[in-house]
């Protein structure tokens, strides 16, 4: 592999270096073929906007050149994204660039590798995060600061989701930088948004059922952090935190890990019980949260030791096989399976 395809920030640990996939390599090579002035463009894997691109953008669209047009549009999108990434280095333009880049998350599939492999970008994200720590305790986060950091978190989410960057993201231990945000309890919107968006990054990591992500998280304190949010958090953060615990449980190592000691098992089952009691007593119709809770119980019941204990500790309302507050058919089935596993019905 030629060196020019490895674009790594100078000060990064060598084990977070990655080789670029053949598809990306091709993409960079094509871009490089168009390149006129190599030195200043090396930062982006040799991508350089071709002068003809500017000209052709102004030509009229006809049915025959519709393919050309979509290719051109892709190129002009890349140019725009590259420009925003460069603007991150300018303190005056950074806030705007963060916001624009985070809007491009879904429409621009190459965003994650570009962010990861461009020099200094990740360091800028970490710096943005570190600046916010001082406003957590005492709680002084303004809505503007919260929204700026949420743009950064949105971009981290994109790195967590992308198959080509997820592993680097984990090996660089980036999730740990978000834990101070999860450890807050201030009820204001600025803080709740910060927690929900940080959970969103962890949610993106576990969404792909990637054992590497689960194994990483298990070695950290993410479960107690999630449990605290499940117990005391607001609706949305509660739901995402429960989803994360569910995903960890669905992994075989994750299930064994949680059922390994009585302390861990009871910490989880007590919080699930609190949430069920809360939903039942308040008559809140939160089917999404209920779905995650029942899935967690079902999974716990698949572990022999946990199943035996759960038989005793399952919340009373869930022992009723005709439980009417479960509306979703799939969830009703899970509930049935749960009762069967525990030989309650
Ligand atoms: N370090 C703690 C442990 O290994 C993490 C932890 C706390 C935990 N509470 C938990 C893990 C509940 C799983 C479930 O026990």
Automatic annotation (TrEMBL):
Q: List GO terms (cellular component aspect).
A: CCR4-NOT complex
**Region annotation Disordered: where it falls in the sequence:** 31-52
Q: What InterPro entries does this protein's entry cite?
A: CNOT9
Composition bias, kind Low complexity: at what positions?
Answer: 31-43
Coiled-coil regions, chain positions: none
Entry's Gene Ontology BP terms: mRNA catabolic process
User: Would you say which domain of life the source belongs to?
Assistant: Eukaryota
Matches recorded under PANTHER family: CCR4-NOT TRANSCRIPTION COMPLEX SUBUNIT 9
The protein here is known as Cell differentiation protein rcd1
